[in-house]
Write a structure and sequence with these properties.
This protein is of the alpha+beta class. It folds into two domains: 168 residues, D-amino Acid Aminotransferase, Chain A, domain 1 (2-Layer Sandwich); 149 residues, D-amino Acid Aminotransferase, Chain A, domain 2. The chain contains seven helices and 18 strands. The strands form two sheets. Strands 1, 2, 3, 4, 5, 6, 7, 8 and 18 form a nine-stranded mixed β-sheet that branches. Strands 9, 10, 11, 12, 13, 14, 15, 16 and 17 form a nine-stranded mixed β-sheet that branches. The longest helix is centred in the middle third of the chain and has 16 residues. The chain is globular. Bound molecules: pyridoxal-5'-phosphate. The site of pyridoxal-5'-phosphate has 14 residues, from helix 5 and strand 15.
């Protein structure tokens, strides 16, 4: 299927006002957005236009019933100067997986990738060139039908906005294993990248921060025993030379970084098991000296090294170093900038001809 994407460009770009060495995280947006409307059962009028406020009816259903989902991905520049996307078809498929769970319409996956490419082509001056920097892309869909009543909306918007992000120098993070609040239960919406999952996580995350932790480590909803994931990341542990990560259980998010890291670890000769992992198992490994490292994986930060995990009044020491995590992070960055060969065929080039 081919789509005609109309492009309306602004007169003067704001990119010259941006200090690329000092990018305020999540607050700077590029000049344009991709936007498409869902009306009368179909997606119409895909376009790239100047980023501006969108008039919203006070009864827009997303505001009341929360039909809102999103994606997160990054565009980088290759050594040859051309912008590239990392596995965008995976984000397209995951958006539709989330849409299914939330009773929302599918967005055509080819148009998702085409929209990303067009937007990135128009905004390529905004891609920070520094190592570890990228243009963060945020595709999202929400119900904008004005209606008070409990059913799936009949009109939606699909939008992609872009925000340059500087290099992430994450310190080792400390996690708080939460035994009171839960993020997701099997059968719930945890597998969907739904806005509401975050809404429910905000308060527990604030409480963890008050205790001196960076993020919540979510445990299963039934026994508060099995490890699920971290705020916006999946999690890996290295015990006695082998890697483990919680298996997809119907409640954790199927991270694209997670699936890529599993491939990279195996490629580097490590064993990786996807299986249920209890917090007690991690505690025991910490105590008997077999817990070698642990890290979180997600598009926003890449790899975040975990130093310790708190639970109630206990502290589980993880590790002060994360050599494999560091190596995987470098490999991922090098693939994303074309410094090493993309043997997995993950990168999708954006043609410059469109601009
Ligand atoms: C987006 C997200 C992740 C990471 O997914 P990536 O595709 O690797 O960015 C992990 N957990 C949650 C809850 C998320 O929303």
């Amino acid at each position: 299927m081919s789509h005609t994407i109309n492009i309306t460009k602004i007169n003067t770009s704001k990119v010259d006002d941006l200090d690329f060495d000092n990018i305020p995280l999540g607050r700077t947006f590029t000049d344009h957005m991709f936007i498409c409307d869902y009306e009368n059962g179909e997606w119409v009028n895909p376009r790239v236009e100047p980023l501006e406020l969108i008039p919203t009816h006070p009864a827009a259903m997303a505001l009341h019933y929360g039909q809102a989902i999103f994606e997160g991905m990054k565009a980088t520049v290759g050594t040859d100067g051309s912008p590239m996307l990392f596995r965008p078809e995976k984000n397209a498929a995951r958006l539709n997986f989330s849409a299914d769970r939330m009773g929302m319409p599918h967005f055509p996956e080819d148009l998702f990738v085409e929209g990303l490419k067009q937007l990135v082509a128009v905004e390529q001056a905004w891609i920070p060139p520094q190592e570890g920097s990228a243009l963060y892309l945020r595709p999202f869909m929400y119900a904008d039908e004005p209606f008070i009543g409990m059913r799936a909306a009949t009109s939606y918007k699909f939008i992609i906005i872009a925000s340059p992000s500087g290099p992430f120098f994450t310190n080792r993070i400390k996690l708080y294993a939460e035994t009171k609040y839960i993020r997701a239960a099997e059968g719930g919406t945890g597998e969907a990248k739904a806005a509401g999952n975050y809404a429910a996580a905000i308060r527990p995350t604030e409480l963890a921060k008050e205790k001196g932790y960076d993020q919540v480590l979510w445990l299963d909803a039934v026994e508060h025993k099995y490890i699920q994931e971290v705020g916006t990341m999946n999690i890996f542990f290295k015990i006695d030379g082998k890697f483990i990560t919680p298996k997809k259980d119907g409640a954790i998010l199927d991270g694209i970084t997670r699936m890529s890291v599993i491939d990279l670890l195996r490629d580097k000769g490590f064993e990786v098991a996807e299986r249920p992992i209890t917090i007690d198992e991690i505690k025991e490994a910490s105590e008997n000296g077999t817990l070698e490292e642990a890290f979180g994986t997600g598009t926003a930060v890449g790899i975040a090294y975990i130093q310790e995990i708190g639970m109630n009044d206990e502290t589980i020491h993880v590790s002060d170093e994360s050599p494999v995590g560091l190596d995987i992070n470098d490999t991922l960055n090098d693939i994303k900038t074309g410094k090493i060969e993309d043997t997995f065929n993950w990168m999708v080039k954006v043609e410059k001809v469109l601009v």
